[in-house]
Amino acid sequence: MDDLKHTALFDLHVELGARMVPFAGYAMPVQYPLGVMKEHQHTRDAAGLFDVSHMGQVILSGPSWDVVARAFETLVPMDVLGLEDGRQRYGFFTNDAGGIEDDLMFARRGEDLFVVVNAACKEADIARMKAALEPEVTVTPLTDRALIALQGPAAAAVIAALDSRADDMGFMDLRDLELDRVPVWASRSGYTGEDGFEISVPEARAEGLTRTLLAQDGVEAIGLGARDSLRLEAGLCLYGHDIDTGTTPVEGALNWAIQKVRRAGGDRAGGFPGAAIVLDQITEGAARKRVGLLPEGRAPMREGTEVFDAAEGGTRVGQVTSGGFGPTVGTPVAMGYVDAGSAGIGTSLWGEVRGKRLPLTVAKLPFVAANFKR
Amino acid sequence: MKFTEEHEWLREEDGEMVVGITIHAAEQLGDVVFVELPEEGTVVSKDDEVVVIESVKAASDILAPVDGEITEVNSALAENPSLVNEDPQGDAWFFKMKISDPSQLDEFMDEAGYQKFIG
After folding, report:
1. A10-52+144-233 domain in CATH 3.40.50.11240?
2. pLDDT given for residue A324 in this prediction
3. What is the mean pLDDT of each run of 10 residues along chain A (374 residues)?
4. Which chain B residue's Cα is nearest to A224?
5. Is A351 within 8 Å of A307 (Cβ atoms)?
6. Do A225 and B81 touch (CB under 8 A)?
7. A37 CA: distance to closest CA in chain B (Å)
8. pLDDT(B118) > 90
9. Which H helix or E strand runs over A282?
10. Which of A 37-66 lie inside 8 A of B, CB atoms?
11. Which of A113, A191, A296, B101 is the one with CA 20 to 30 A from A1?
């Protein structure tokens, strides 16, 4: 654990009794004394506070928004140019084979683009953006900012009590707020399927703000363990597991994130790495697809579980990429890739667990309905 | 009660050994969501994987502490896996076994020895 990086909240995690584990080169809290199950339920019932400072925060700036947005569109298949000030979108970097290099959130902040990328990919992402966009656009990693998320039905009241300007923020809005005299950039988004905020805060003020938030009614610190079960129930991808360099957006069932203007026939169609493959798959479909998989029994089906189309013999039709127990659903839940012919909702399949074929059903995602502010 | 380095406990009851996992092991595992028990009547050797226990985070195997025959399993655990967290050294026993070689028990620790072992 000695060579692991620490976030600004490391000492606070230890003080709160967290079990620290290595994650993407950082020592991160996997759970607090409450435990994964109760942390998960607390986030669905009230508000959970997560340290996600290990993620990469980057500002792209240039002579104008138009230049910055058009430049970023050469790396992602999203409508960046059409983003209004103070609005955020989900996106991903693609490669020449149409695979996904990382997924990310990006928001317009005046003339700048504010990008949040995964911890494990951030060095490569920054290098990619610098190589492709500089010198016309300047790529600045924000190494002096922490990122905390407050998620759950009670999050809005907690934040609005500290700054009433949060009140009328809608889902995927980004706004400058002042929380307990700390200037922050808050987006109304997250990774749990719940209403909530992700809050970018100067590192020196992060612990103080976190203590303030934890002191509010209904707020508990939540570890990476519950973060994973929350996002799995919400049907959200974990990069490196559910999507990676070998999966395309269409295979990953992420077509919704590619706006019409970047698709075939759109005003700015293509122009991102792997565009020919991705746009063709949007029209023609892909040979396999990411789907929800609901085990019928009580045995969790973990990542790597092979999926077959018969209880005995038959054909291997896919594999689980994320799986575990869903505390809110109350049963095991999973997602994974299956052949297009087996991807219909309600299809009966079998997962092989410890040599035994156990029944499962292809299920609609998310497993738990999203509870976003609209 | 005897304790193993695999964090199991054994308690003698009516000439059989009742086997479970320790409070320490249950705490380390976290919230248990699934327990798969062996068939009654299974003949096992020491270190055979006899029980699969899954927490929210991961799957673990429980090994047979000694040679013998599984005579009874605690089916309440299949219905209510969280019992493992609530009462690991009491109601949440896993199985009972008739043991073949009592001398295999000699290497196990007593409670004080186990407490020292887990530090």
Report:
1. no
2. 96
3. 90 98 97 96 98 98 98 98 98 98 98 98 98 98 98 98 97 98 98 98 98 98 97 98 98 98 98 98 98 97 98 97 97 98 98 97 97 85
4. B57
5. yes
6. no
7. 6
8. yes
9. helix A275-284
10. 37, 40
11. A191
Q: Work out the number of other CB atoms within 10 angstroms of the CB of residue A308.
A: 18
- Burial label for A244, CB within 10 Å (0-12, 13-18, 19+), is middle
| CATH node for B2-101 | 2.40.50.100
Option in B36, B56, B78 nearest A325 (CB): B56
Six-digit token string for B21: 């996992």
CA distance A10 to A182: 20
Question: How far apart, in whole angstroms, are the C-alpha atoms of residue A73 and residue A82?
Answer: 11
With beta carbons less than 8 A apart as the criterion, state whether A366 and A231 touch. Answer: no
From residue A42, how far is each of A38, A45, A201, A237, B86 by CA, in Å? 6, 5, 24, 22, 19
Question: Any chain B CB within 8 A of the CB of A327?
Answer: yes
CA A342 vs CA A83, A280, A293, A301: distances in Å: 37, 21, 11, 18
Please give the Cα distance from A52 to A179 (Å, whole number): 18
Q: Which amino acid is at A124?
A: A
Contact A298 B30 (CB under 8 A): no
CB contact under 8 A, B78 and A327: no
Of B33, B52, B78, the CB nearest to A325: B33
ipTM exceeding the 0.90 mark: no
- Which residues are bridge partners to A324 per DSSP? A333
Domains of chain A, by residue range, sit at 10-52+144-233, 287-374
Check residue A374 and give its pLDDT: 75
Size of interface A-B (CB pairs under 8 A): 41
Is CATH 2.40.30.110 what the domain over A287-374 is classified as, yes or no?
Answer: yes
Distances (CA, A) of A64 to A112, A134, A136, A161: 8, 14, 10, 35
